[in-house]
Design goal:
Elements lengths: L2 H15 L3 E6 L5 E8 L2 E8 L6 E4 L12 H10 L3 E7 L5 E10 L2 E10 L6 E6 L4 E4 L41 H53 L1 H10 L11 E6 L6 E6 L6 H44 L4 H14 L6 H4 L11 E5 L5 E5 L2 H11 L5 E5 L7 E4 L7 H13 L9 E7 L3 E2 L10 E2 L3 E5 L8
Length: 479
């Protein structure tokens, strides 16, 4: 926010909020403060942001989260200036610094405060100052010895050097019908949402990639353990050799050379022994170790498909991430990650928020001959197609050996023409990881052949019988 734009904003704020009373104070995150001000018979919402890139102050219509436990500075402001009257809002000439003069009635009389907003980029701050110029508290502390201008409670605040407002903020156009506050909210609202979207998308990708790497390491470890366990099965053969060689063994021996009669001709085998055990106990030990290895192999073999299925699920989520081009898509992906246990459900995600209308996780299209074609937008949408939408006679499609959308032709009791089958297959190829291939394989199956295993992740299915089609990926007509 440039000093010139801030000048217009401050003039409008002073006109609207002078003599108003601060009724509520919220701090939805570490950078933003929201003040509810009752003035001239109506409520206003004043946003003050110390965001390093988008620091600003303006009136806003946006609703913000109100954390159950207020942060330190918010709690302090509530204790000091809730109920305070705004006596004026000013700006330091040519600077990105503004001040709100406040007066509050107490049992000891009127107390005066100044809330100073330094909209100076990375060093942006909000500071509550007493009448004598001493800092009472601040959004950010700058400790003595770490900076030439400390900002901590109990220190008299030194003025910022002239033109210390950091890089000039972006300019924006104000439409004729807008106030400067409305123009600023429109402009910065778009920037903040865009930056927030990019930041959240990057965060979710890191979560998915980290989970996939962890599972790949787990799969490698499980396979290594399986190899070791399979080697342990040899203990049974050693036990059989020892069983026919009791006369050669004595307690205290570390090894014994015995004949392996399973080979033709019999071969000598050097077998390790536990010197603390008797011959029969050594035989039993080898058989017990072999039994233990057999049990371990069964457990490991049972575990491998589950790990592999979860890796495939994460690949599907990464595909959803690549195609999340708007806030709703990202919200749906975050919800899936929460449900799957990859992201913790925080107080923020549980609190009441103003959300855009949730879109259906399925695209609804029409084939050239009028049949409905459903395309999953997310793993959850794919799940709905298989579990709820698919009926007897419908046809299901999916890109072969690649993450992608489930596609379903709703046959509605009609025979499906070959042209429509190829059309749906091309759509399945297009809405997949193989979208940019010249040609790709797509599997086609009767819907009754597609099942979701018990306990499987959303969108994960088994297909008992299918045919493979080779098609050119094509977007649906009109989309």
């Amino acid at each position: 926010m440039t000093p010139g734009i801030l000048k217009h904003i401050v003039q409008e704020l002073d006109a609207a909020l002078r003599a108003g009373v601060i009724s509520r104070i919220h701090q939805p995150n570490e950078k933003d403060l929201v003040f509810k001000v009752y003035s001239r018979g109506q409520d206003f919402r004043l946003l003050i942001s110390a965001h390093p890139e988008f620091c600003r102050m303006l009136l806003t219509e946006e609703e913000f989260e109100n954390p159950q436990n207020p942060p330190r500075f918010c709690a302090f402001l509530r204790s000091r200036i809730t109920g305070a009257r705004i006596e004026g809002i000013t700006q330091d000439e040519g600077e990105n610094i503004a001040h709100i003069k406040l007066a509050k009635k107490t049992g000891e009389g009127i107390r005066s405060y100044t809330l100073t907003m330094e909209l100076t980029g990375k060093s942006a701050n909000v500071i509550l100052i007493a009448e004598n110029g001493v800092v009472l508290d601040a959004l950010k502390y700058f400790k003595p010895g770490e900076t030439t201008r400390p900002v901590v409670p109990g220190i008299k605040l030194a003025p910022l050097p002239r033109h210390a407002h950091g890089p000039q903020g972006p300019e924006f156009d104000k439409q004729e019908s807008e106030s400067w506050n409305e123009a600023a909210e429109r402009f910065y609202g778009g920037l903040v949402k865009e930056a927030g979207f990019a930041s959240e998308k990057s965060r979710l990708k890191k979560i998915i990639v980290a989970a996939e790497k962890k599972l790949l390491r787990l799969l490698e470890n499980v396979n290594n353990d399986r190899v070791k366990a399979e080697a342990g099965l040899q203990r049974a053969r050693l036990g059989e050799i020892l069983r026919g060689s009791y006369n050669l063994m004595r307690r205290g021996m570390k090894e014994v050379e015995a004949l392996d009669y399973a080979k033709e001709p019999p071969e000598k085998a050097l077998i390790p022994l536990d010197e603390k055990l008797s011959p029969s106990e050594n035989v039993d030990k080898h058989f017990k170790l072999a039994k233990k290895a057999k049990t371990a192999i069964a457990l490991l073999i049972g575990r491998i498909p589950k790990v592999e299925a979860e890796i495939e699920y994460l690949k599907e989520l990464l595909f959803d991430w690549e195609n999340a081009g708007h806030a709703q898509g990202l919200e749906a992906l975050r919800d899936e990650l929460i449900e799957a246990g990859y992201v913790k459900k925080t107080a923020s995600s549980q609190s009441k928020r103003v959300k855009a209308e949730v879109s259906e996780p399925i695209r609804r299209l029409r084939s050239s001959d009028g049949l409905e074609i459903l395309v999953g937008k997310t793993a959850k949408g794919n799940d709905l197609i298989v579990r709820q939408c698919a009926k007897e006679g419908d046809l299901w499609f999916h890109a072969a050996r690649a993450p992608g959308s489930h596609v379903l032709i709703k046959a509605a009791g009609r025979a499906v023409a070959e042209k429509t089958v190829m059309e749906a297959a091309s759509i399945a190829a297009y809405f997949s990881k193989l979208q940019n291939e010249k040609k790709t394989e797509v599997i086609c199956a009767e819907a009754r052949r597609v099942k979701k295993p018990k306990g499987a992740k959303p969108g994960m299915v088994t297909v008992s019988e299918y045919k493979t089609l080779r098609v050119v990926p094509k977007p649906p007509k009109g989309g």
